Amino acid sequence: MSVMTMPSYIIRGGQAGRERLRLLARVMRPTTAALFERAGLHEGLRCLDAGCGGGDVSLDLARLAGPKGRVVGIDLDEVKLAAARTEAAAAGLANVEFHTADLVGGDLPQPGFDLVYARFLLTHLREPQPALERLCGLLAPGGLMIVEDIDFSAHFSHPPSRALAAYVDLYRRAALARGVHPDIGPRLPGMLESAGLAPAEMQVVQPASLRGEVKLLSAVTMEAIAEAVIAADLATGKEIEGIVDELYRLAGDETTVMSTVRIVQAWGRKPA
């Protein structure tokens, strides 16, 4: 199988992937909420959440947009979308809907959104610029595009950890082996302006802690990329098991600081 015929997404999907996304959403909610506040999001917006996964941000947007607004979440993983529909119904949110859609050549919702949002999506695409341009094309005049994505190489710990360094190296190499972009974050402002949005703004966030769920993300993600790492012949199952065990140990060690990825947040408006 060639690189171009292999799936570009290296992280395990399905229900196991959904549980990882719940953890990720809890860790990232404060910084994403602050971004939405800075960007001036308000009630009544028509919003698209592209690559919505299990819909965690979609539900937050639905609460923010209120009954006069509307949110559409799109993703390729129907297992996660089904979970998102269930959670939206349980939360009593009637202003959000979820659909299967493919950014790479598939049908997308009709244009006219006030906000198009994508978190940790472009990093998994072999050709992110055309996908971003398709998303920008869904904006109404004056609409806002917000993207959050990763600079994976920028993890840190104190004291330094060989297991964390090995995880970062294996993730990046597995992603590059699939032809995708683990360090796309710093490119985002330029990509937005190339897509016709200007001026683009940006800021950088990076959750880190001595304790709590922030520290669990590395171990959980290492487990979730094991198949891709083995398929690329980058490490054995036993080697991966050792890295995962040490990452979980560090997650419980309250004398060690660990970070998530560095996250670039960027946004820009379509000309009115």
How would you concisely characterize the structure shown here?
With 272 residues, the protein is of the alpha/beta class.
The total count of helices amounts to: 9
- Determine the structural class based on helices, strands and strand pairing: alpha/beta
CATH architecture: 3-Layer(aba) Sandwich
The number of domains: 1
Describe the structure.
With 272 residues, the chain is an alpha/beta fold. The protein has a single domain, classed as Rossmann fold (3-Layer(aba) Sandwich). The chain contains nine helices and ten strands. The chain has a seven-stranded mixed β-sheet, with helices on both faces. It has a three-stranded antiparallel β-sheet with strand order 6-9-8, with no helix packed on it. β4, α4 and β5 form a beta-alpha-beta unit. The longest helix is centred in the first third of the chain and has 26 residues. The protein is globular, with a radius of gyration of 18 Å.
